[in-house]
Specification:
The structure holds two protein chains of two kinds.
Chain A: E1 5-19, E2 26-40, E3 44-48, H1 55-62, E4 70-75, E5 78-79, H2 84-87, E6 91-95, H3 107-117, H4 122-136, H5 151-164, E7 169-173, H6 181-197, E8 202-207, H7 210-216, E9 219-224, E10 227-232, H8 234-239, E11 245-252, H9 259-263, E12 268-275, E13 279-286, H10 292-301, E14 306-311, H11 316-324, H12 328-338
Parallel strand pairs in A: 3-8, 3-9, 6-7, 7-8
Antiparallel strand pairs in A: 1-2, 1-4, 4-5, 9-10, 11-13, 11-14, 12-13
Helix pairs in contact in A: 3-4, 3-5, 4-5
Chain B: H1 3-29, H2 35-61, H3 69-100, H4 104-108, H5 114-121, H6 123-143, H7 155-182, H8 190-198, H9 216-221, H10 223-235, H11 239-242, H12 244-247, H13 251-283
Helix pairs in contact in B: 1-5, 1-6, 2-3, 2-6, 3-5, 3-6, 3-7, 3-8, 3-10, 7-10, 7-13, 10-13
The chains are: A alpha/beta, B mainly alpha.
The complex binds adenosine-5'-triphosphate (ATP) and magnesium ion.
Chain lengths: 339, 292
């Protein structure tokens, strides 16, 4: 294979038609809009975005499960629509936060069966199964019926299924969703190790955990409402904000102060407001450090007491806020209120 | 990749899909935690429905069990068990994998041959169905004097016709599986519902001439009609002369019609399934769960 990119998309778009209730009105929802991505071989690429951003939709298209509405995508050099049969043996996919699998089969049988679909000889499959179960700490459950596993353990089995077929391109949709802290850490470490073992391997992973994107991925695309807003290494993304000053201010009860009151101030680029119990935290991205004076003034005139003020290095969260205007947390809680 | 190796790849993925799906189907089907339930399902249920039929027949004909109508009905009903078993076995796999096990997306995006996979999932139901069919017929012979003359049986034709019929039923099952891909809410087993509806239109328990004239063409279009007739004739030759509907046709002619219609349904199933699969992929239905 001489193709340069493991994953390549051009103006990729996806529209869903939604029928609303009994009324026959058909709405359209743009889940992806003109997505252009190029992921070279060997890269661990992250898609970072809030709920509903379009991450899963993109993965479904790339794994031949869903047809795009416009544009094209290639995986391992093959078109996902016209050459799906060439794409499939070369990929695998794991979705986190769901418990799939045949409960009446044992862990080994579930995994063995999928290996069969990929044409892996039984002996080799069994060897890999034992090895991978060891890695995720499920070795002692080899012959447990998978219905007897907890949700998290089932997810680990599912993760093993993804690696089992040694795909050229592996798609992981929120692989650590629902796993405990230790297990998440182990899985992240394993993903990193796996990709470094062989240069031909590529991983595309979606997440809405900042640290996951930041610590794990070589490059990250920030995606919101179906659009890719930025795509670069975490370090480069953060470097964009290097010239700006980022402050975190903790206050007593904000007396009706909200993000909007600060946005009007000259030099304030973005404000995020995290209300708390009897106090509040504001995060500011400022054009320059001096602007913080005006902010403190606004607070004191409203009788709000400062509890803590700190300046810190930019994080991916800040990059997101800078690009979108709101934090991921705000977007997701607004979505919840609407629903 | 040259075309020769592409074909051998397809061959091996077809065989892999079938074999593995058959294995999986058997694991699911034979997972009777309770052998009593298995007995109810595969022995008592078919025998009970055969008994109802026999009692009704006895009442209506005042116990004329010597009439060729009796084996006609009895065997038609017995072999019809395959219709529900095979069609449901295949189309139900879509609902099962998509809704219950949530594995359909992983199987679909694996290098499987999807229609072959679904057919493989029907194998287990074919086997348990065979068990029910055999039990029903054996009981018929032992206790109800269903007149099977072992010397007059045309065993080779029976076996070939049976196998072609199973292939035909598998194709109908695939057609229904395609339709099932497009239905988001699962309306129970589409296969069983269709099997129930076709019971009346395929000469299973009464000759087609009993139907109102406008419904008969449906029966004549169904390959199941010719299949059942052929199976009955190869086991009990005398039923051939007893009924006007298909009496004009020789066994060879019936066989040719069965082959032709099976080929037609195979082509139809291939087209419809492919079309449904593409629509499902366009609409994002391959991993859609209906939440209830
Ligand atoms: N089958 C569908 N029919 C209609 N709309 C859909 C369908 N699947 C997804 N959507 C919509 O498309 C948008 C993108 O959804 P998607 O699942 O890709 O988001 P996501 O980034 O994976 O979110 P999350 O973090 O919650 O998993 C959402 O607005 C969602 O409601
Ligand atoms: Mg998602």
């Amino acid at each position: 294979m001489s193709q340069q990119f493991s994953i390549e998309t051009q103006d990729l778009g996806r529209v869903y038609k939604i029928r609303e209730g009994k009324k026959k009105s058909v709405k359209t929802l743009v889940a992806l809009h003109d997505v252009n991505l190029q992921v070279p071989r060997g890269e661990l690429f992250g898609l970072l975005g809030p709920n509903g951003a379009g991450k899963t939709t993109l993965i479904k298209i790339l794994t031949t499960l869903l047809a795009p509405s416009s544009g094209w995508a290639r995986v391992s050099g093959y078109d996902v629509v016209r050459e799906a049969a060439q794409v499939r043996p070369r990929i695998n996919m794991v979705s986190g936060g769901e418990s799939s699998g045949y409960g009446l089969l044992t862990v080994r049988e579930n995994l063995w069966m999928f290996a069969q679909f990929y044409g892996i000889p039984s002996a080799e499959a069994n060897r890999r199964i034992r090895e991978l179960l060891q890695v995720v700490g499920l070795a002692d459950r080899l012959n447990t019926k998978s219905s007897d596993l907890s949700t998290g353990l089932r997810q680990k089995m599912n993760i093993v299924r993804g690696f089992l077929t040694d795909p050229q391109v592996l798609f992981l949709d929120e692989p650590t969703l629902g796993l405990d802290v230790g297990a998440s850490r182990d899985v992240r470490a394993f993903i990193r190790r796996w990709i470094e073992q062989e240069r031909a391997r590529t991983v595309l992973l979606t997440t809405h955990y900042m640290i996951e994107a930041d610590e794990l991925c070589d490059r990250v695309a920030i995606i919101n409402q179906g659009r890719v807003l930025a795509c670069d290494s975490p370090a480069n993304l953060k470097r964009r904000l290097q010239r700006e000053a980022i402050f975190q201010i903790e206050t007593s009860s904000p007396n009706g102060l909200s993000a909007r009151d600060f946005e009007a101030l000259p030099g304030v680029r973005q404000v995020a407001h995290h209300p708390g119990d009897g106090k509040a935290t504001f995060e500011f991205i400022l054009d320059a450090e001096e602007v913080v004076g005006a902010i403190i003034n606004t607070m004191t005139t409203k009788g709000v007491r400062l509890l803590n003020l700190s300046k810190r290095e930019p994080t991916l969260e800040d990059v997101f806020v800078d690009l979108v205007g709101r934090s991921m947390e705000e977007i997701e809680s607004a979505d919840k209120e609407m629903a | 990749m040259n075309s020769k190796s592409a074909i051998s790849n397809l061959n091996s993925s077809v065989w892999r899909s079938f074999r593995t799906a058959a294995w999986l189907g058997w694991q699911i089907e034979s997972n009777w935690t309770d052998p009593f339930l298995f007995a109810v399902y595969s022995i008592i249920k078919p025998l009970a429905s055969a008994m109802i039929l026999v009692v009704m027949y006895g009442v209506i004909t005042h116990g004329d069990f010597a009439s060729p109508l009796f084996p006609y009905i009895y065997l038609g009903n017995a072999f019809y068990i395959y219709v529900g078993a095979v069609m449901t076995g295949i189309s139900w796999a879509v609902v099962d994998d998509r809704e219950h096990y949530k594995t359909l997306k992983y199987i679909y995006t694996a290098p499987t041959h999807f229609p072959t996979y679904l057919c493989g999932r029907g194998v287990a139901r074919f086997l348990t169905g065979t068990f029910s069919v055999v039990i029903t017929i054996v009981c018929g012979i032992l206790f109800l004097h269903v007149p099977i003359d072992f010397a007059a049986m045309d065993v080779p034709l029976f076996v070939v016709a049976l196998l072609i019929g199973v292939l035909m039923l598998a194709m109908m099952g695939l057609l229904l599986a395609g339709v099932t891909l497009l239905t988001v809410h699962h309306y129970g087993a589409v296969g069983e519902a269709v099997a129930g509806a076709l019971y009346l239109f395929s000469g299973a328990i009464f000759p087609l001439d009993v139907l109102p004239a406008f419904l008969r063409p449906l029966g004549f279009l169904m390959p199941i009609t010719y299949w059942l007739e052929l199976l009955r004739r190869t086991l009990v030759g005398s039923v051939a002369q007893a009924f006007p509907t298909l009496a004009g046709l020789s066994n060879a002619q019936l066989f040719a019609i069965l082959l032709g219609l099976t080929a037609l349904f195979t082509a139809l199933a291939a087209i419809v399934f492919r079309w449904c699969e593409l629509r499902a992929r366009e609409r994002g239905l391959l991993d859609r769960v209906s939440n209830y």
